[in-house]
Amino acid sequence: HGRRVVVLQAAEPAPEFAAAGRVGEAFLEWMLTELAARTGACLAFVGQLDAGADGARVDAAPVFEDGAIVEGFDYVLGEAPCKSVFDGQTLLIADGVAARYPEDVALAQRGIAGYAGVPLCLEDGRVLGIVVLLFRAPITDGDAVLGALEGCAPRAAAELQRVRFERRLAQSELRYRELVESSDDGLIVFR
User: Under DSSP, is residue 73 helix (H, G, I), strand (E, B) or coil?
Assistant: First the structure.
């Protein structure tokens, strides 16, 4: 009871999420704020998997909590409900999520009752990240919550891909600038 797993097919973005005049990080922050307002979630975040030396960690950023965008956080994936979402499933647990996942102590510490998450997939089906909504009260309208998440997922995936590309480009430009500035030799650029 209360647990519903749905495998997403290619969803059409909700018109308001598709047409929002923001891009990249600004869009993701706006989207989280809108999702929380529409669904009553106390916490909403975009998560990306970081498989480092100490196992799989989730980098949660941006994060919306209790009415504002706040600093991101990270956590060990372990047996958290997000694991199913990173495996490509949409997950809704209307009530009792902290009791079902006792090893995810942050759920109990924050008083979380309900959980909803959707994968952000690339065109080839690989999961790029996730969007998660957390609720202190049980979720009473699961269909509305899932509809909101599924409506934003295509655009959120595209914007997350944009953010990743922009970060890689900025890192590349910084490395190039450092190389040029530290070089004692002259450089010739051919066009």
Answer: strand
Residue 125's closest CA among 158, 161, 88, 151? Answer: 88
Alpha-carbon distance of 182 to 191, in angstroms, equals 23
pLDDT tens profile 56-88:
889 999 999 999 999 999 998 888 999 999 999
Task: Judge contact between 131 and 160, C-beta under 8 A.
Answer: no
pLDDT for 32 equals: 96
* Rounded Cα distance, 80 and 31, in Å: 23
Query: What is this structure's pTM?
Result: 0.79
CA 64 to chain centre: 11
First to last CA, the chain: 66
DSSP string for 8-68: PP-PPPPHHHHS-S--HHHHHHHHHHHHHHHH--SEEEEEEEEEETTEEEEEEEEEEETTE
Q: Distance (Å, rounded) from C-alpha 99 to C-alpha 63?
A: 23
